[in-house]
């Protein structure tokens, strides 16, 4: 009798552990993380709603419920990355110190972001059919340049140059730093601090005054 009971218990199907149900906010964050990874890996066109839902372990209607579709999810991912990067650059540019040191901090802020948020930067530098509405690399450069204008204008005024050219020089400067960062994203050599030092060397001294072995002067 006891043996039969034991056998019955042993052969009874085991209950599968129930998955913890996510709150709406947690599910949204999970979908953003999944979408961010896939967009960085495959680009906007190469990523499908089916892949996003499968990797997140949800049905497609759940993705539509939170974001209205792939474009909506992509837009939120891009906006978040733009905000994160611009916040770092703006903080660096708004710090006190010699203009050259401020420029060094801004260059390092971009390279730090690339190093710690590689997926995010890959998304920002990719072309996308929805870039016109959500922002993109050109928009990033433009927004960052607007933060640099007042610094350049002050330097131009102090040196007797026309301040009306400051916006143009700001675009040149930020574009140089951002495109160098895009290149460094793949090669990761030389070291981050060395890249920043050489960037500032060219931007601050010009070709005619390049230092042979530039080093960062700030902290």
From TrEMBL:
Residues 1-24 are annotated as: Disordered. Keywords: DNA-binding, Transcription, Transcription regulation. PROSITE patterns: HTH_TETR_1 (PS01081), HTH_TETR_2 (PS50977). One of its GO terms (molecular function) is transcription cis-regulatory region binding. It comes from the Bacteria. InterPro entries: DesT_TetR_C, DNA-bd_HTH_TetR-type_CS, Homeodomain-like_sf, HTH-type_TetR-like_transc_reg, HTH_TetR, Tet_transcr_reg_TetR-rel_C_sf. Residues 25-85 form the HTH tetR-type domain. GO terms for biological process: negative regulation of DNA-templated transcription. Residues 48-67 bind DNA. Residues 1-11 have a biased composition (Basic and acidic residues). PANTHER family: HTH-TYPE TRANSCRIPTIONAL REGULATOR RUTR, TRANSCRIPTIONAL REGULATORY PROTEIN (PROBABLY TETR-FAMILY)-RELATED. This is TetR/AcrR family transcriptional regulator.
């Amino acid at each position: 009798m006891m043996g039969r009971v034991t056998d019955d218990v042993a052969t009874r199907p085991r209950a599968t552990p129930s998955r913890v149900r996510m709150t709406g906010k947690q599910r949204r964050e999970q979908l953003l993380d999944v979408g961010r990874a896939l967009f960085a890996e495959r680009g906007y066109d190469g990523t499908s709603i089916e892949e996003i839902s499968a990797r997140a372990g949800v049905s497609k209607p759940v993705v539509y419920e939170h974001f209205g579709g792939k474009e909506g999810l992509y837009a939120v991912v891009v906006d978040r990355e733009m905000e994160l990067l611009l916040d770092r650059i703006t903080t660096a540019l708004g710090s006190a110190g010699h203009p050259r040191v401020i420029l060094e901090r801004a260059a390092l802020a971009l390279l730090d972001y690339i190093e710690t948020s590689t997926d995010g930067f890959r998304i920002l530098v990719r072309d996308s059919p929805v870039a016109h509405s959500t922002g993109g690399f050109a928009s990033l450069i433009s927004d960052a340049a607007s933060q640099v204008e007042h610094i350049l204008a002050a330097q131009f005024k102090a040196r007797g140059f026309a301040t009306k050219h400051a916006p143009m020089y700001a675009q040149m400067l930020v574009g140089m730093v951002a495109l160098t960062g895009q290149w460094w994203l793949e090669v990761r050599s030389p070291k981050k601090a060395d890249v920043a030092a050489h960037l500032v060397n060219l931007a601050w001294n010009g070709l005619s005054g390049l230092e042979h072995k530039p080093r960062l002067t700030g902290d």
